[in-house]
Amino acid sequence: MRYRTDIHLPPRRLILRWVAAGFVAVAGWTLFKIGPAAAAPTPLIGTFTVTPGSCSGGLASGTYLRMVLSGGTNSSGPYFSNSDSSCSDHTVTPLSPGTAGGLVTGSYQPQPSPAFDGAGNALSHQITTPVAFEGVKFATATNSVDPQTGAPAPAPTITANGTALSGNLESFGVSWNNQEFNQGSPKPGGSAPGNTTPVVGTYNVPTGSYTLQWSSQVVGGPFNGFSAFWNLTGRFIPAASSSGGSAGASGGVASGVLPGSGATTAPSSGHSSTAGSTAGATPTVGVTPTTATPSGSIPGGAPPGATGTGSDVRTAQSSRTITTGQGGWSPSSWLIALAAIVGAFGLGGVMWSERALRRQRPLTLRVEGR
């Protein structure tokens, strides 16, 4: 017995349509998955106002300093105990805003000359108010030439990438008992010795609220090998556009609008002076370290009360280069272009199949057998 079966295949133009539709689907899915290109990091020029530090129930909030003994870590210590701390946990030293309201980016807030009084108390007062530390007041400043090392240092920069902050605080330093200690991150020249960690933080764009955290190891002097963990919180006030988009050369607060409030701030007069020289005197105040963390003290690298990163501040970020955008195409741009090309080929295939193959007959495959 013989039999014959005719199998009718689709026209070639229908096959091409299917292929073209596949190309279009791939292009659409690619665009859907990659979404819009990410915005470039934005430098924040203005004043990072400082919320005063406070302690409640052994927990710290606001702006404060915590020193870690040599070989210790931010998360587990051991920590240095400051007998002058107003907190029940003396390893935490609360800080208050200075005359400028906080840390200015884009310009310096240098220490005065002289930088100390007759008792060795530091006189810088723009960023934070001088506070007692083991019997002698210390203060913070940013200087174009680091008083401890004599090396030049760039003005402070903080960059926002969405809600994440990073920065360069090479010029940040502390004065205490006629001595200078660089407390920047990275150190002048870009190094990050020991427990020095990158400047990181969070930023709420609508309200301007922020948290900045970093750690800087002391090099030289009576606290050699110790490190200080800094936690700054407050609101960012951008410099007014009328002042050229940056704070004044005196280092004061430029007038600007506080994000999310509509309130304006008047410029503060900065205390302009040159950085003082490093004094080589040995402090007479004793150092009484503690090797145990008091109960209720701050756990981990993201202290309670802070709105920061939620993890230890040691991250795999660049501690020196502040990215403000890169030239060329980003990976997202290449994917968008590729998707557009694929889609164009797909649509072209549909048009070509309609025009060139409209008269093609179905293909027939005949199978015979017994």
Write the layout of secondary structure elements.
Elements: E1 3-9, H1 12-34, E2 42-43, E3 46-49, E4 54-56, E5 59-61, E6 64-73, E7 77-79, E8 92-94, E9 102-104, E10 131-133, E11 136-142, E12 157-161, E13 164-168, E14 172-176, E15 179-182, E16 197-203, E17 209-217, E18 227-238, E19 256-257, E20 264-265, H2 331-356, E21 363-369
Please give a structural write-up.
With 370 residues, this protein is of the alpha+beta class. The chain is 13% helix and 29% strand. It has 2 helices and 21 strands. It has helices spanning 12-34, 331-356; strands at 3-9, 42-43, 46-49, 54-56, 59-61, 64-73, 77-79, 92-94, 102-104, 131-133, 136-142, 157-161, 164-168, 172-176, 179-182, 197-203, 209-217, 227-238, 256-257, 264-265, 363-369. Strand 12 and strand 13 (164-168) form a beta hairpin. The longest helix is centred in the C-terminal third of the chain and has 26 residues, at 331-356. The radius of gyration is 31 Å and the shape is elongated. The termini are close together. The relative contact order is 0.23.
